[in-house]
Amino acid sequence: MRKSNAAIKRCKTMSTLQKILGGKWKLEILYYIGVEDVHRFGALRRHLVEITESSLTKQLRELEADGFLHRHDFHEVPPHVEYTLTELGESFLSVLHYMKAWGEKNL
Amino acid sequence: MRKSNAAIKRCKTMSTLQKILGGKWKLEILYYIGVEDVHRFGALRRHLVEITESSLTKQLRELEADGFLHRHDFHEVPPHVEYTLTELGESFLSVLHYMKAWGEKNL
């Protein structure tokens, strides 16, 4: 039975997930940092071949603001910054693994 | 132990998933069609409050092209078109449910 329009409200959880993950590179950035242990800006950029520097910077900042990434500045010269998953980001890895397994089977 | 750069290749599955799901509304569109039984353009637009007509049209076409959605035109006047999940789209529901459960617990 279809639900009436009145009965369906915007699902807040899905809306939040969409906002966090909707970026053009978010899933892949989390995957490379969390699963493939790629922690530095330049290395991430090399993996995400088509990404621009400004786009990667923006997406990393958003993931940091959303609590998924931690940015650690070693205060070295030349600059040395590493990105790692926060506790929230680590817990999201289960979703990435589930999604990847589905993709390997179905795509 | 960190993997060397040479050892890490772009993960094709993650890259494909990113391309399919990276749109600003893809997850929510699949959720409303597949989980909340919202099948018509106007109803989808009302649920995704901020989406424009052209953006919804584009995202629906992409999801159809990627094999997740089926577009059924009833050839009626006034026009009556419904969107439903394909078999591939139905199988993706397990990922959406897993992701939503994670979000409800962690976000």
TrEMBL record, chains A, B:
At the top level of its lineage, which domain of life is listed? Bacteria
Q: Which Pfam families match?
A: HxlR
By its UniProt entry, which InterPro entries does this protein fall under?
HTH_HxlR (IPR002577)
The UniProt keywords, alphabetically, are: DNA-binding, Transcription, Transcription regulation
Entry annotated with the keyword Transcription: yes
HTH hxlR-type domain: residues covered: 11-107
PROSITE patterns, A to Z: HTH_HXLR (PS51118)
Q: Which PANTHER family match?
A: TRANSCRIPTIONAL REGULATOR, TRANSCRIPTIONAL REGULATOR, MARR FAMILY
Name of the protein in its database record: Helix-turn-helix transcriptional regulator
**Organism (species):** Butyricicoccus intestinisimiae
What is the phylogenetic placement of the source species in the record?
Bacteria, Bacillati, Bacillota, Clostridia, Eubacteriales
